[in-house]
Amino acid sequence: MKKVYLIVIVIVIALAASACGSGNTSNQPIPTVVLGNGATNGSPTQPAAPLISSSGGVTASGVVVPVQDAQLAFAMAGDVKKVYVAEGDQVKAGDVLAELDNTAVQTEVDQAQRTLRELTSPASIAAAEEAVATAQKAYEDAQKKVDSINYRQANQSDIDYYKAQLVLAQKALDQAKDFSNKTNGLSSADPLHASATTNLYNAQRAYNTALSNLEWFTNKPDENDVALAKANLDAAAAALQEATWYVSKLKGETIPADATGMQLTQLEQARDNLKAAQNRLDHTRLVSPFAGVITDVNLVAGEYASPGQPIIAISDVANLKVITTDLSERDVANVSVGQSTTIFVEALNKEVNGHVITISSVADTLGGDVVYKTTIALDELPEGIRAGMSVTVQYQR
User: Fold this and answer.
1) Confidence category of residue 218, pLDDT binned at 50, 70, 90
2) DSSP 351-374
3) pLDDT at 129 > cutoff 90
4) Fold of 70-102+284-315
């Protein structure tokens, strides 16, 4: 107690000496006197100093912000049918937040679904499989035709046989002609004349067949016949392939990207139409891109929404980060991605650890000074921290 009394006396003496001075009335600073308990005579409202050491490295001011936030707008114009949320509501990713009047678009989706459903029905699949079987038979027949043209030359024994058949047919034809000539004077109703006429007709047909068979195996194939047979085979092969691709697509199997066919094109067009209609329907709804809190709602049901007009704002307030605002160009060279930091949250009078995740490549200006923005990830979230709070960041050496 004696020590305290002595200090108070010194203060009183100092004040008296000042009052009895040479008449100079200018304000003189009152010296700060440290008392025994370490208190000062400063203002009782003096703020507490940051916990961060001033010699701990580069420092910068910053602010706490959500890791994600978004201004949501419709991609198409229309009248607002319903708004499902209000400011302050918590939502999950995928929740519908607002919706335009989409009656006409829903009709397009329904029609596209019906068309695709008809094309992919069990009856359509059965018909497509039947078409594959028919195309397979046509291909096999065309292949046989080509083979018969390419490989119709027989061996010498076969050729001798067909020559002998032609000789016999020629002899039979000559005999039939002689017999027919002998009956020319008879009435057409005479049985003998009728028999001669019939024999001549049959003998001529037998001769023509024998001659054709011999020529088939001895003469060179006609170029037009060969070209036509090959063209028919190519067409049959293509038809079989397209029919097979179509069935595979109907069954959900993988087919080449360059697969063709009228039915395949029709099926893919139906699926594209449904996808486009569904996309238009999706564009009539605002969906939350992530879980968060609705921070602003700018439109009500019945109002007209223009494309790109911000309607709803959402923030992920459960996940926070720090953005610095005044890191000097003189200090940014001492900062690197991954560098550890200590963040002092002024409103909470607490420190929390973090690390640098991004450094802006482009500078900003602040009061004429060149500064760079850095983004800090918080290793933990202290209780009570909120977006918008001011912080001081110290980058560890």
Assistant:
1) confident
2) EEEEEEEEE-SS-EEETTEEEE-E
3) yes
4) OB fold (Dihydrolipoamide Acetyltransferase, E2P) (2.40.50)
* Full 3-state SS string of 16-44: HHHHCCCCCCCCCCCCCCCCCCCCCCCCC
CA distance 54 to 339: 18
Structure tokens at 298: 């700018």
* Burial (CB count <10 Å: 0-12, 13-18, 19+), residue 210: buried
pLDDT tens per residue across span 341-370: 999 999 999 999 999 999 999 999 998 999
pLDDT tens-digit readout, 266-279:
999 999 999 999 99
Q: Taking phi first (over 0 means left), then psi (-120 to 50 degrees means alpha), and beta for anything else, what does residue 261 get?
A: left
Please check whether residue 348 is in contact with residue 385, taking contact to mean a CB–CB distance below 8 angstroms. yes
Cα 295 from Cα 82, distance rounded (Å): 18
Residue 323, C-beta contacts closer than 8 angstroms, at least 6 positions apart: 62, 63, 65, 373, 374, 375, 376
- Write phi, then psi, for 242 (nearest 5 degrees): -65, -40
CA distance 149 to 282: 61
Helix (H) or strand (E) holding 285: strand 285-287
Helices (H), the chain: 2-19, 103-119, 122-150, 156-182, 191-218, 223-250, 262-282
Average model confidence (pLDDT) across the chain: 85
Q: Which helix (H) or strand (E) holds 72?
A: strand 69-73
pLDDT, tens digit (0-9, with 9 covering 90-100), for 26-51? 444 333 333 333 333 444 444 444 45
Q: For the domain bounded by 122-257, which CATH number is listed?
A: 1.10.287
Q: What's domain 57-67+319-396's architecture?
A: Beta Barrel (2.40)
Q: Domain ranges for the chain, please list them.
A: 1-46, 57-67+319-396, 70-102+284-315, 122-257
- Is residue 294 a contact partner of residue 98, using CB atoms and an 8 Å limit? no
Structure tokens at 380: 């933990």
Q: Which of 44, 50, 46, 47 is nearest to 349 (CA)?
A: 50
Question: Which pair of structure tokens corresponds to residue 26?
Answer: 């200018």
Residue the block writes with tokens 């200018």: 26
Burial 6-44 (b: 16+ CB within 10 A, else e): eeeeeeeeeeeeeeeeeeeeeeeeeeeeeeeeeeeeeee
